[in-house]
Each structure stands twice: as C-alpha cells, then as structure tokens.
Design a protein that fits this description.
alpha+beta, four-stranded antiparallel β-sheet, Transducin beta-like protein 2
C-alpha cells in the first residue's frame, strides 16, 4: 500500500484548519447576535435607548443627592466675620447667653446647637448638639444662669426645659425635664422669654394673649393686648417690663410686679410708645432698658427714651425718626445694639444698619440668606450682628458701632477736664479706629 505524498498531507491539514476557524467564527457571531437581540429587546420593553436609560438613572441619583443635601446659600462681603454651618435644617431662632460665652440656635432638623462665641473669628466653629426628641424647636432662650435653656415645640405646642450638665472633658450633657409645660395657648406662639431675674417666663401667641409663667409651669397672669393680633412680644433686659406690638400703631408696655419676698403680685399697664400711624411690626430694647426702637408699616422706624417716671404719667420721649420704605410692603425685624447707637433692620433676606444719633443708613447687605431672615441679634459686646434665615448663622462686623464710638469719644475728649479721663477716652478712640482700619471701613 502506497503512502500519500507530503504535499497532499499538508494541503489536507490546512483545509481542516480553515474549516475549524470558520466554525468558531460562526459560533462567536451567533453569540454576539444573540446578546444584541437580548439588549435591544430590553430597550424596546422599556421604550428607552440603553445609553439614555443609563443617563436618566444617573440624573435621578444626582437629584436624590441634591434633595438629601440642598446647596448652602453663599454670601460674601468684606464685613462678613463668620458663617456657622452645622445645622442640616433651616434655623428659626437664636439666643446669646447672658455671660456672652454661648449662642444657642434651633432648627427644623430636631436639634439645638450651642456655639462657643470665642470661636466666632476662628476658622473652625465648635458646637454642641442637643436633640429634641420626636419634635423640633421653633424658639430657644437661655436661662439667666446659663445652666439651662427653654424651647417652644413646633408639634407639641408647649415649652420644654433642657438642663445643661458640664462633663469632665469640658463639654455638656443636655437633659430634658420629665414633663413639658401644659398647653395653654390657642394660637401659634410667636415668642418666648425668661426674665434675667429668673422669676418668670413669658410666652406670646399671634392672637392677643401673653402669658406670664413661673418656672414650675404655672400661669401667673394672662395679658390681653387688645391689638387684634400680636406680631411681637418681649421681656425687657431689666426684667421689669413685658411689651407687645401688633395691629395697632403703638407698642404697649406692662410692669410685672413682685413683692419684697419674691412673690408674684400683679401685672399693671406701665406706658405706651405712641407716634406711628400704622401697625407696628417689631420693637427692641437697649441693654439697659432705657431705650426702645420700633419699626412700623407706616414706613418709619423710631427711637425712644423710655427712662421716664411712668407712675407719674410721664410718657416716653421720641428721640429719632428714620425712613424705611420696605416696612410699608413687608414684615420687618429689628435689633438694637446694646448701647442703642446702631439699629439693624431686616426685610426679606437683606439687612440695613442705621446710626441712631443721625438717623443715617451706613451699611446694607443684600441676600444675606437664602430664605427670609427669621432672627436678628447683636452679641453682648455689640461688635457683631448675628442673623439666621437658612441653615447658617451669619455674623457681620458692626462698623457703624465702631464709628459711633469714634464720634462719641472725639466729643468727650473736647470736654475732658483731667488727664486720666483724656487717656482713657483716647485709648477707646484708638481701639475703635484700629478696628475700623483693619476692616477697611475707616472713613478719611
């Protein structure tokens, strides 16, 4: 039997190899075609092309992230000292402690934050968190001894007391008292306060009711303001007075009277601020309670001397009237510096600072917050103005306050009779001028 020749064997091997490659390629093409058919079937079932469906899925994820973490409102200004940004919800109220060491803020994120004021001009702003269980606070106020604070509960519609206990590491533990105050108000509460003497608590609602409580949650007196509605109410820093404003064109002031042994006696009408021609939006006291400021729907603000003998029927003196047209079209808030030299007015998300001696506007800040401003307050030194209206507290340098000090010291220096007085006045003048120079706000 003859063996095949070598060339014929090689040709047969090449033929078999080609056939194997062709079969493999056909199988691979079948797999790819099947995979494409499955993919296109899925796309047809969804009615959306694949790359578009992936794109929409990414967009939904990004939208979900944006909803979970809304963008912080950014405000920049040469006089912005700091922005406190630990809350995840909108801040509705804030309060400086009487010792000047802390700032309390409450928000709809179910927390109250306690900030250290000594960190305000630092890079990092430390805060301690107190949780408001199953509710959130709309108003917050420190106790006079700074060892507790009270809040108004949005859903519970009552007062809750938190005690502050200092830990070994320097922090605090916050504990709510076992029982909240009883429900007494029939309308939403617009403000709360604690007298600096610690003798009573005030709550005011948007109808015409202002309640005076003792610290145990018992109502001592109910004031009917007869103003159709209340827009604001507050306790004076001296703790003698409670005042309210509303639909009527005046601010009504009552004296809360206690006996020599500290027992509650009565609430009596003291005096009124009369001079506006329309409803009063807001008012504030100076630190010594000898001055008051008010802003009205008539488009004006007024500064009053309230250091009067009201028991002899003496009325407060009107010291200054200024124009603020925004007040005629929208609700406004105001804050009076501790020395009554500067008036801060807030309308919408903007703030304006006025010199009360001359009645002139000195600074304006637009769109300070992403929402309408909900609270406005000077710190106890008067050097900073704090505001809230979104998820941050913004602190602004009070340059009109420094200018007022410069103006006052220059006037006093001309009348100074001895060298020691001149040196003291000159030192205060120099400090105020240096502060203005560092802020780029020194007028030449």
């Amino acid at each position: 039997m003859d063996l095949p020749q070598m060339p014929e064997l090689m040709g047969l091997s090449l033929l078999l190899g080609l056939l194997a490659l062709m079969a493999t390629a056909a199988v691979a093409r079948g797999w790819l075609r099947a995979e494409e058919e499955i993919r296109s079937a899925g796309q047809k079932a969804n009615g959306v092309p694949l790359d578009k469906s992936l794109k929409s899925k990414k967009q939904k994820q990004q939208q979900r992230i944006r909803k979970e973490k809304p963008q912080q409102h950014n405000f920049t200004h040469r006089l912005l000292a700091a922005a406190l940004k630990s809350h995840s919800g909108n801040i509705s109220c804030m309060d400086f402690s009487s010792n000047g060491k802390y700032l309390a803020t409450c928000a709809d994120d179910r927390t109250v934050r306690i900030w250290s004021t000594k960190d305000f001009l630092q890079r990092e702003h430390r805060s301690m968190r107190a949780n408001v269980e199953l509710d959130h606070a709309t108003l917050v106020r420190f106790s006079p001894d700074c060892r507790a604070f009270i809040v108004w509960l949005a859903n519970g519609e009552t007062l809750r007391v938190f005690k502050m206990t200092k830990r070994e590491d320097g922090g605090y533990t916050f504990t709510a008292t076992p029982e909240d105050f009883p429900k007494k108000h029939k309308a939403p509460v617009i403000n709360i306060g604690i007298a600096d003497t610690g003798k009573f608590i005030m709550t005011a609602s948007s109808d015409t009711a202002v309640l005076i409580w003792n610290l145990k949650g018992q109502v001592l007196s109910t004031i009917n303001t007869n103003q159709m509605n209340n827009t604001h109410a507050a306790i004076s820093p001296c703790s003698r007075f409670v005042a309210s404003c509303g639909f009527t064109p005046d601010v009504k002031v009552w004296e809360v009277c206690f006996g020599k042994k500290g027992d509650f006696q009565e609430v009596v009408r003291a005096f009124e601020l009369k001079g506006h021609s329309a409803a009063v939006h807001f008012f504030a006291f100076s630190n010594d309670s000898r001055r008051m400021a008010s802003v009205s729907k008539d488009g004006t603000w007024k500064l009053w001397d309230t250091d009067v003998e009201y028991k002899k029927q003496q009325d407060p003196y009107l010291l200054r009237t200024g124009c603020f047209e925004e007040a005629s079209t929208m609700l406004c808030r105001l804050a009076l510096s501790p020395d009554a030299q500067v008036l801060a007015l807030a309308s919408g998300s903007s703030i304006h600072l006025y010199n009360t001696r001359r009645g002139e506007k000195e600074e304006s800040f637009k769109e300070v917050h992403g929402e309408c401003i909900t609270d406005l307050s000077f710190d106890i030194t008067g050097r900073l103005l704090a505001s809230c209206g979104d998820r941050a507290v913004r602190l602004i340098h009070n340059t009109p306050g420094y200018r007022a000090v410069v103006e006052e010291m220059q006037g006093l220096l001309k009348r100074a009779s001895n060298e020691s007085t001149r040196q003291r006045l000159q030192q205060q003048l120099t400090q105020a001028q240096e502060a203005l120079k560092s802020l780029g706000a020194l007028k030449k």
